[in-house]
Amino acid sequence: MTGISENRQKKIAVVNDLSGYGRCALTVAIPVISALGIQCCPVPTSILSNHTGFSTYFFDDYTSKMVPYLEEWKKLDLGFDGIYTGFLGSEEQIDIVAGMIRDFGGKRTKIIIDPIMGDNGKPYQTYTPQMCQRMRELVTLGNIVTPNLTEGCILTGRDYKNTGWSRQELTDIGGEIVAMGPDTVIMTGIRQGNFIANLVLERGKEAVFVRTRKVGRPRPGTGDIFSSIVAARAVKGTEVKEAVKTAAWFVRECILESEALKEPVENGVCFEQVLPRLMKRK
After folding, report:
1. Which of 40, 71, 223, 262 could form a disulfide with 33 if both were Cys (CB 3.0 to 4.6 A apart)?
2. Quick check: pTM over 0.70?
3. How many of the other CB atoms lie within 10 Å of CB of 281?
């Protein structure tokens, strides 16, 4: 792998799907990571006309193309400061990503895994118990893992509940995930009354909760935006807690902007108007 020089622009390889409409996955990761001064190098897992929350969509599975795509990168002897993975639709894709981490990850490469498996207490239909187990295996390869509360429960085999989680219970979930191998777990989307909390637990440190006041309606793509900011900040060496604060702030501002513009929920968030403010905080 090509050596990493301090005198060049940092770059992150981002593995996720590409939806032409709806503002999620690579559609938000590329501009958000770029706005933070990092080169974003996409690895598409599938191509969609729009995300699956719409009533109809075109879908092209890119699994068979991922290996030859990455083989060309190997021929170029590429190296990355970060590898960030999002939604993976099959066991084969999880295997491909694990191989990619081995092939392109160096000692200084930050591996950020967003284990997208479910929400609101339920796994997605594509995530069978076997798929969930494979995701647990992938998590062991990460430096930073960003599950939501549902995914935290899936990873640790716990029953989900909407509310009533104590700080100790949440910290225990984070601790079990850190014990799988990652240095840091950031568990997102924890409802606490009028607030949304994010647990930050770094190996060997006390748990920290970063809270923001709840605004607007839940929208697709906010998790992708959050993890993209965390990934870019991690590569730049920002303290994890500060990265989470920035990500939570930006998502909140994007939701407020979307509500003000009366943007339909399925269209995601109007992050474009807020990007200049993010760039000032980079």
Report:
1. 40
2. yes
3. 13
